[in-house]
Each structure stands twice: as structure tokens, then as C-alpha cells.
TrEMBL record:
It comes from the Eukaryota. Residues 1-18 form the signal peptide. This is RTA1-domain-containing protein. It is found in: Membrane. The chain crosses the membrane at residues 42-63, 75-94, 106-124, 145-169, 181-205, 226-247, 267-285. Its main location: membrane. Pfam families: RTA1 (PF04479). It is a multi-pass membrane protein. Keywords: Membrane, Signal, Transmembrane, Transmembrane helix. PANTHER family: PROTEIN RTA1-RELATED. GO terms for cellular component: membrane. It comes from Psilocybe cubensis (Psychedelic mushroom).
Length: 300
């Protein structure tokens, strides 16, 4: 056989093998998602749970929008905008093997709560200033807002860079490096919010101990109109965000095939539910009712 014919035959065999390789259908993703190598979740996302979660979260978003219009506190708008930016999981139910949909869903779910955190940072500064109790903060209210919102933006960017590195990676080493950057951003965000929560608890303790007049200034009002109720709402919001942030750090440290990542019940129980509580608690205790500042609030 001549060299030319050998070369042509080799090229033909390569093209046939390539065609056979690329035309082999993927396994049915609904048959055994737990062992499907193309399904990153290892389960089929429930449209029922997704629909319930989306309906509840959007309801909170609509209510917060109405409360901003009625009572003011536009400085809480980052939380409301973040609610509308939460990703929906319907696409993963229909296309459970889609890497693109998975990446977009994961990034939106992980990054959107940065807006909730920023709102809590601003709220503490506003509350301390409203009570004229800056002296009880370890950091002055103006600086605490600038420092922690800046920290939130920084950790957001670190997570976004890590996510982009992982999504665009063409080799395992680059993908691993991206996931480590992402994990570093999540861990830094958790540490930042832990320190903020500590400052907030110390603030409440100092007001209670050293300024009883401020602590009991709203005793003549209904309990749900007292600034203590707003302080309680912020405490609950912080707790929800801490639970969710801790879950995300542990989840990513296990890798994308870990038990936390591949469990739908844990996703809703340790991510969706705590975040829902963290944002829904402000509906009955909207900060604009307690802290004047916007034009609408000043009319009351």
C-alpha cells in the first residue's frame, strides 16, 4: 500500500471514529441522576420546590418594593434588588446535564445574597445614628458602613473572579484554582459578617447596660413599633445569613461532588430557607417605619 493511500485510509478511519464518538448519545439523565457523570447536581431539581421558593421570594420582593414607596428607607434597596436577581432553577429540571445553566444558576444563587449583607451593614449604621448611640459601636456608624460595604464588594469580586475562572477553565488545574479563589471569597465574606455580627451584639449589650433610657425609649409604644423590634429583626436576619454563609463555605470546601452540593433537601434547608427568613423578617418590621430619613418617612 502506498504511503498516500495509507495516509488517506488513516484520515478516513479517524473521521469515522470521531463521528462515532461524538454521535454516541448521553445516558438518560432522568434514569439514574445520582450516577450520571454529566449531571453536576446528581439529582433532578424539583420544579415544585423551585416554584414555591420563587413565589415566596418574589412575594417578599414585591412587598419590600411597596414598603419602600410607602415608608421610605431607600438605603435598603440593595436587598430588594438582590431578591429580584436570585436565579431560578427551572432550567436545571428540564436540562439537568447543562453545564452552562448550572454555572449561571450557581453563581446567581451564591452571589445575590451579597446584596442582603450590604443592606444589613447599612442598617446598623443608620440605627446607631438614629438612636444617637454611636459611642456604643466599636466602629463609628459612618465608618462601619463604608468599611463593611467595601468588604462586601471586595468579597463579591473575589467570588465572581473565582467563578469566572472555573466556568472558563479548559483544564482541571485551572478549574481547581478558580474554585479555591471562590472558596477564599466565601470564607472572607463569612469572617467579615461574623465580625460585623459581633460588633452588633456588643452594641446592643452596651446600649442595654450603659444607656437604659435609650433601650427603653419606646416602651410607651406597641412592641412592634419599638426600635427593639427592628433590632430583633436585624438579629434574625444576621442569623439567617450566617447559617447560609457557613453552609456555602463547607459545601464548596467539599468540592462540587460533595454531599452538601448533591443534596436538594440540604440546599433548601440550609441556603434557601435561611435566606428567605433573613429577608422576610423585614416585611413586618420595615426599617423605614422606625428610622426617618426619606421624604416619605418624614411625612409620618
Amino acid at each position: 500500500m502506498s504511503p498516500l493511500r495509507s495516509l488517506l485510509l488513516s484520515a478516513l478511519l479517524s473521521s469515522v471514529n470521531g463521528a462515532i464518538k461524538h454521535n454516541v448519545p448521553r445516558p438518560d439523565p432522568f434514569a439514574d441522576p445520582r450516577h450520571d457523570p454529566y449531571n453536576p447536581l446528581k439529582y433532578i431539581a424539583s420544579n415544585t420546590l423551585t416554584g414555591i421558593a420563587v413565589a415566596l421570594v418574589l412575594t417578599v420582593g414585591f412587598l419590600q418594593t411597596w414598603l419602600i414607596i410607602k415608608h421610605g428607607a431607600r438605603w435598603m434597596m440593595s436587598m430588594t434588588i438582590g431578591i429580584y436577581c436570585l436565579s431560578f432553577r427551572f432550567g436545571l429540571h428540564v436540562h439537568p446535564q447543562s453545564k452552562g445553566i448550572y454555572i449561571m444558576e450557581y453563581l446567581f444563587v451564591v452571589l445575590s445574597p451579597c446584596a442582603f449583607i450590604a443592606a444589613d451593614y447599612v442598617l446598623l449604621g443608620r440605627l446607631a445614628k438614629h438612636l444617637n448611640a454611636d459611642k456604643h459601636l466599636l466602629v463609628p456608624s459612618r465608618r462601619i458602613t463604608i468599611a463593611y460595604v467595601g468588604s462586601d464588594i471586595t468579597t463579591f469580586l473575589i467570588q465572581a473572579i473565582g467563578g469566572a475562572m472555573s466556568a472558563s477553565a479548559n483544564d482541571p488545574d485551572r478549574a481547581l484554582a478558580g474554585s479555591r479563589v471562590f472558596l477564599a471569597g466565601l470564607a472572607a465574606q463569612l469572617l467579615s459578617f461574623l465580625s460585623f455580627s459581633g460588633i452588633y451584639l456588643i452594641f446592643l449589650w452596651r446600649v442595654h447596660k450603659y444607656d437604659p433610657d435609650i433601650w427603653s425609649m419606646d416602651t410607651s409604644k406597641k412592641w412592634y413599633n419599638s426600635w427593639n423590634a427592628l433590632a430583633g429583626a436585624l438579629s434574625i436576619s444576621c442569623l439567617g445569613i450566617l447559617v447560609r454563609s457557613g453552609f456555602r463555605v463547607v459545601e464548596l470546601s467539599e468540592g462540587f461532588q460533595g454531599p452538601l452540593t448533591t443534596s436538594q433537601s440540604l440546599f433548601y434547608g440550609l441556603d434557601t430557607l435561611p435566606l428567605f427568613v433573613a429577608i422576610a423578617v423585614y416585611v413586618p418590621f420595615w426599617p423605614g417605619r422606625f428610622i426617618p430619613g426619606d421624604a416619605n418617612a418624614n411625612k409620618e
